[in-house]
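Postdoc handover notes: sequence design on the structure in folder B. Input tokens:
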């Protein structure tokens, strides 16, 4: 089995080095690390809708870098800082996955950075 890592050596908030890969691929499975609404090392402002869009854009960029798309996503994990944001988040999320949504878990959680949402995923594409 071949394992390929994407995005090692990245930096996060405060330009601190991140000790993990943005994604790891093995035998057609791509595991994408949790993404937040980060741009140039800082969380974008604008509330849950803007943060969800940027988080999804970051997730899609990693999928595309590895040769995958949203159609390959089989499972998504979502962490929301505030459960009152659920319906606004869900509306934006539905725009991306449409009629073919993946399996998903969504929970409330305190975040490690000052953001409102974090999303990870697992995608599969036959090797």
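Designed sequence:
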């Amino acid at each position: 089995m071949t394992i390929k890592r994407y995005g090692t050596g990245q930096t996060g908030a405060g330009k601190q080095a991140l000790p993990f890969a943005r994604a790891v691929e093995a035998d057609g499975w791509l595991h994408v690390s949790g993404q937040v609404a980060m741009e140039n090392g800082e969380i974008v402002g604008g509330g849950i809708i803007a943060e969800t869009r940027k988080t999804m854009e970051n997730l899609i960029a990693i999928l595309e870098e590895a040769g995958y798309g949203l159609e390959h996503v089989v499972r998504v994990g979502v962490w929301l800082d505030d459960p009152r944001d659920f319906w606004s988040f869900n509306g934006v999320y539905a725009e991306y996955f449409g009629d073919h949504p993946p399996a998903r878990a969504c929970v409330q959680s305190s975040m490690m950075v000052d953001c409102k949402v974090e999303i990870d995923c697992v995608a599969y594409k036959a090797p």
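Context for whoever picks this up: The first strand starts at residue 3 and ends at 6. Don't rerun without checking with the PI first.
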